[in-house]
Amino acid sequence: MDKKVKNILSYVFWGAVAVLLVWLCMRSVDWGQFGEALRQCRWGYVILSMVLGAFVFWLRGCRWRMLLLPFDPATSRLTCFNAYNICMAVNLVLPRAGEVARLGYVVKHSSKDADGGRLLTIDKSLGTLLTERIWDAIVTLGMGAVLLFVKWDQFGAGVMQGFDGIFKAAGFMLFIKGIGSGLSSFMHMKKAWVFFVYTAVIWFTYWIMSACIVWALQDIEAFAGLNMTDAFFLMIAGSISSVVPVPGGFGAYHGVVAGALLSIWNIPMGTGMVFATLSHESQAITQALCGLVSYIHESFFRK
Question: What's the mean pLDDT when you consider all of the chain?
């Protein structure tokens, strides 16, 4: 079968899976209660979460640039930021296709050597992308392990009941692919400690973004008891949902996060969908807006 046809069939399949997951999640929603919950929402916190989401894109672009600099010292922060924005916007529609667009963008804007070839190539930039994935997987699993160790009495039973399969699927396949090519750029990176600072700030910001949605829903009884630790756990649960390659995480994120709220805090799925929807859709809008801004900049302003 032609590769292009396979890709189209893959996109259609995962798009259908996303629609099915969204339907399964939403069928238990009482839309009257859902609308009332939105009216009680403190929208300032939701907007703050969106602003922080755009800030994370900038941080991720800066962190990725550190991995690209050993190959092309002229790589700019703006190039990496635009590449990341376009990647996230494309992934809203075509799962995993955004990574291809991201790599193609930085290669297109990389410097040329004496022979006219690009200093950055697809294989080199792919290695840096895999390095990012590996470190983020390590951080996610590490934070999850620490949280479960410290708060096993609160989260342990729920995780064992609801997320056993997800943890198995999420974890260790990420470490198998492309470790050798990815780590080469990391080993040649200058000021590696800055990379770890970026990583720490990125994940701390994700935590605050999750907390913003918790704070936004404090006037609703079901969410009034949630705290920063709970927001931390929900952040980890949401990141694990990205293992399912559906467009933009639609359905997968909602199911995992609402399932966590049900299994650990006994918040009904329909009510938990309020948190999942606010958290996911606010960031989907942020991704779309940032991608649009970067596309406009690339199309009309960049020479």
Answer: 82
Number of folded domains that form the chain: 1
Q: What's the gap between Cα 114 and its chain centre?
A: 38
pLDDT at residue 170 is higher than 60: no
3-state secondary structure of 192: helix
> Can you state the angle between helices 179-187 and 43-68, rounded to 10 degrees?
80
Residue the block writes with tokens 């040649």: 188
Which residue in 266, 209, 236, 238 sits closest to 148, CA to CA? 236
Domain assignment of residue 152, given as a range: 3-301
- The sign of the dihedral angle between the CA atoms of 223, 224, 229, 232 is positive
DSSP of 118-182: BSS-HHHHHHHHHHHHHHHHHHHHHHHHHHHHHSHHHHHHHHHHHSHHHHHHHSGGGGTTTHHHH
pLDDT of residue 7: 62
Q: Any idea which residue has 């809203």 for tokens? A: 92
Residue 167: predicted pLDDT? 43
What is the spatial distance between Cα 217 and Cα 220, in angstroms, rounded to a whole number? 6
Helix 269-296 vs helix 77-91: angle between axes, to the nearest 10 degrees? 130
Rg, C-alpha atoms of the chain: 20
In the predicted structure, residue 252 carries a pLDDT above the cut 60: yes
Beta carbons of 252 and 8 less than 8 angstroms apart? no
Q: Which two tokens stand for residue 300?
A: 């009309």
pLDDT at 280: 93
